[in-house]
Every structure is written in C-alpha cells, then in structure tokens.
Write a structure and sequence with these properties.
single chain; 3 helices
Length: 124
Amino acid sequence: MRLAHSPHTTPRTRRVLARTAVALAAGTVVLAAAGAASAEAVTVLAVADSFETVLNNLRNWLIGILALIATVCLTIGGTRYLISSGDPGEVERAKVALRAACLGYALAMLAPVVVGVLKSIVGA
C-alpha cells in the first residue's frame, strides 16, 4: 500500500483508505457468517431437556457472540493502526478499538462464570 505511506498523501485520503479497509473487513465477516448460517435447513428450532441445557446453550451463544464482536474490533483496530501512517488521531482510534477487543475477549472468558452464578441462583 504505497499510497498510505507517501509524503504527498492527504489526511483525507488516509481516512478514506482506513474506512475502505474497515468496510472490507466488516463485509468479509458478514459474508462469512451468512454463508455459514445458510449451510443447512433446520427443522427443529429448540428442544431442551432441562433448564441446565438452556443455560449451557446461553453460555455457548454468549461466548460465540462476544468472541465474534471482539474479533471484529481486533481486525478494525489492527487495520486502523496499520493505515494510520503515524497520524496521532488515527493511532488513538486504533488503540480504542484494540482495547474494546481486549474487553470483549475478557467478557467472553467470563461468560461461563455468569452462567454459573445464574445456575446457583435458580438452583439448577
């Protein structure tokens, strides 16, 4: 990407490049999720043997969703950092996105603890 590091590149051009890269990354994630979601037709929507099964499924969904969001934030932050070309504003935005990714991964790791607390409250 020679244009982003050129001394003649304007801040507006760098912002356009950054937004384009973020949009491409987000579009890739959405297309990958849509392709995986439409792989098979599901006939049974929900069958749970017990409340514990429901809580375990809830935990698994929480972990998956939080990890997906954190991965998107990590991708956006990394892309912004690479394209920033030393611009302090863009570097700070990249750092904010990377912090959000760290928070998302931490919450994903805490999801089993939250479900365990819910199990102890309801007595399952």
